[in-house]
Write the structure tokens for this entry.
Amino acid sequence: MNLPELLQPYKWRIIGVIVGLIIAILFMTIGFGYTLLILLIAGIGFLIGKWKDGQLDFNDWLKFFTK
């Protein structure tokens, strides 16, 4: 077995640790407010990209948040 096969069961844990580490570094270097702004803009960009790919039903998403 090679390394990618050994790490496959832990893929999302590894990704989560890397993302958490990046966010922690951003908090420590640029501050809380700027980090939240970056995360908000990235989240909006992700949603727009998913919508343009045709994988986000905007009406169902709005119904979920307006219950």
